[in-house]
Amino acid sequence: MSPWAHNLAELGFEQPSTAAPIGVYVPAVRTGDLVYTSGQLPLVRGSIERPGKVGREVSVTDASRAAEICTLNALAAIDALIGLDSVVRVVKVTGFVASADDFAGQPDVVNGASMLLASVFGDAGTHARSAVGVAELPLNAPVEVELIVEVA
């Protein structure tokens, strides 16, 4: 078990299997020393647990937890492609938040992803980030997360 996978287990997280794409794409791609993940939804056993817009049907707390699940799914895609032990550092996180019209707390939602990465990777988990409000996401998901990581 890689040190990063060990950290996930120590934190009480079970690394999921790679989510099957819902379109014509791959979950992750490596180019040079970077791996880019496709946008990952908060799928648990094939379904979205808390669908809807953040600030309306979904609370910030639930959406932050959904961002964590998205991040676990992104880590699973990286692990399936090259193994988590190859990760040198997290470079960038992009979080898309399906937002009610008056919702402006996207950074609070995407903190779920950022805090998980910091807990798993320590200093190597600090990253650049974007937190963007959007009108809709696939499958009525409240959040979607993409990662870019540097690998050995």
Automatic annotation (TrEMBL):
| Superkingdom of the source species | Bacteria
InterPro entries, alphabetized: Endoribo_LPSP/chorism_mut-like, RutC-like_sf, YjgF/YER057c/UK114
Q: What is this protein called?
A: RidA family protein
The organism encoding this protein is Streptomyces guryensis
